[in-house]
Every structure is written in structure tokens, then in C-alpha cells.
Amino acid sequence: STSGLMSHFTGTVDCPLYREVIKRQAETEGREPKEYINPEILQLVYLKMLREANVEIMLYTFVSDVIMENDAVKGVIIESKSGRQAIFAKRIVDGTGDGDIAAKSGAEFFIGRESDGKMQPVTLMFKVGGVDYSRAVFPHSFESLVETAKGELQSLAHKNLTSPMGHVLLYPTYTPGVVTCNMTNYIDANGTNVEDITKSKIACQLQITEIIQFLHKYAPGYEKCYLLETAQQMGIRETRHFMGEKKLTENDITEAREFDDWIVKGAHFNFDVHNLTGSGLDKTGAQDKFTQKKGYTIPYGCIIPKGVENLLLSGRNISGTHMAHSNYRAMPICMALGYSAGIAAALSVKNACTVRAVDVKEIQKKYCEL
After folding, report:
1. Which of 64, 110, 111, 281 has its CA at 20 to 30 Å from residue 328's CA atom?
2. What pLDDT does residue 370 have?
3. Tell me, what DSSP letter sits at residue 124?
4. Residue segments in the chain with a per-residue pLDDT below the cut of 70
């Protein structure tokens, strides 16, 4: 949400932690609570919340391996400027997004779409300054059609931007004249492969010049815009899907199924599958809207990987189908998943039981207490 330079939180969820984050960001900025993100302010909010919770933070560090005892994860090997170190833990939550810890532990997974392994395209977000807000347009979705003197903006992008670019997504910010752009696009990249990540980062970086030239020529209010900032981190939408004790499906979502063992509730978003072979949305009907106003739940079994002990999943790497993932990958829902995974890990240690034996009713009670 910060290093990826996201413009706003998409989707929503009934989670006290998410509401607290939105509230604190607004209070820090002195404005009404909104879903828009100010990356610099949000970083401060996150850091303060971590310090309040007495979390020991290690920046510039990544997990290179796991320490296993039979089928149980006992710790991780980390790499940093300090060299190689081992950290032992009673329980571990994999919040890497790609499920790096779970994969190294031997947990079963599949990548991308079930039929062919294709993953959603990746994006490098960026910001432009010098936008005339009095005239500017802000198409916020692929279906946002904006008529201009030169034609409809999405059609113009499809015709004039080099493939796999071809869409216009522009989001206002709270900084005068600054707009967040979600317009770079790179397909067939595996977010767990460093060569693919490198190629996609370079390709998207080079796309920005062409995009800004397009905005100068076709987008009202952007005639004098200029590149202000690019994200530090690539926006990776999809990689590994792990096999859990339960699997969330698109039918569970469309029917707003209420699981008795829920650990996330009131989740709400669209099926957001970007075109796996070009720009825009997937062409298989993924753009159909999710209309269940009450939202859906996610069961505890989705964050427990099969065949591995002491480990919990959180975020977009949980157990679910490719299509369901396009919904629950939204940041508020991932935040709620991490919140519950942390609660479950703590209860497992406190009650001296396995993560599978944790009383879900206790998780649900703690979930609502913040």
C-alpha cells in the first residue's frame, strides 16, 4: 500500500484493524476518513501502530530458507546486511504475499490460473504532477468511459498506446495537482522469479514516458503534467495459491456464504481479473460485479496449509481458486486475514495447542475486540 504507491484501498471488509488504519490516517492528515492512501502518512501510521504493539521490526531483510523438524516449521533463515541469521519461533505467519515461507516448507501450491498457470499482469504505479484539477478527468475503472474532444479516452489508449498497455486509470490525491496513475502493464511475468521481476520493472519504467506523452495529447487537464514519482515496488497481483484445509471458491463469494469458522467477515469487492494477455479486464466474464451487499466470509481452514505444522498463511497466498483470489486479494481483505492469522498464532501459543486445534470462537471474539 505504501512502497507500491497505491492510490486507494479497493474493496472493503468488516474488520476493526482496517477501520483503525483508515481512522488514524485521517486524523494524522486532519481530514475526514476516506479510502484514499497517502503513502507517506500511512507509513507513519503503520510504524506507530507497530511500536505501540511492541513489534520488533527488521527492515531490509528477507527470508531465504526455513528450519524444519519433520513437518513442522521451527524457524526461518534470514539474510540482511548483518549476514545470515536464524530466527526460531513457536508459530510463524507467512505474510510475504507470494507464500515464500510456505513454499520453502514444502506446502503444496499451484500458480496462477488452474488451466494454464497464467498469472495476472504486473504494474508499476507512478504519480504525475502539474495536473489542472479544474479540467482533469479521473477514469477510475476499465469501464469508466470518458468522452473528450478527440474521442473516448479508453478507446484512444487502446489505439495509441503500445500493447500490452492500452487502458487509462487515473486517481486524484489530496496533494493539489498530483494524480496517481495505474497504466503500466506487463504480462507473462512470474512474481516469484527474480529475472521476471527485473524484466517487468524495467519494461514498466520505460512505458511511463509513452504514457505521459499520451496524457499530454489526449487527456484534458494533463497537457502539462510531468513525472513526479514511481513506486519502489512492483505491483504483483498473483503468484502462488496454497492448498489449505479449506479452499475458497468464487461460488462461496457470489453466494456470500457464511462459514461457521469464519476468520474474516463482511468482505466485499469485485472479481478483479486483469487481462492475462493484454490490457483491460479478463475476457471470460471476470468483470461481473459482486452484488452481495452483506459481503462474504473466509473460513479458518483457508489459512492453514495442508501437511505443514506451526505455519499460518495470510494475504493473497491463502487457499482459494484463481477467480476467488481476484476478489480477496484486495488490501483491506488481506489486512483482515493477517489480523486473524496473528490472533490465531497467539492463541495457539497461549493455549499450548496446534494451530489446527485453536478454538475459532476465540479468534472471532478477539477479532471484534480492537
Report:
1. 64
2. 75
3. -
4. 283-293
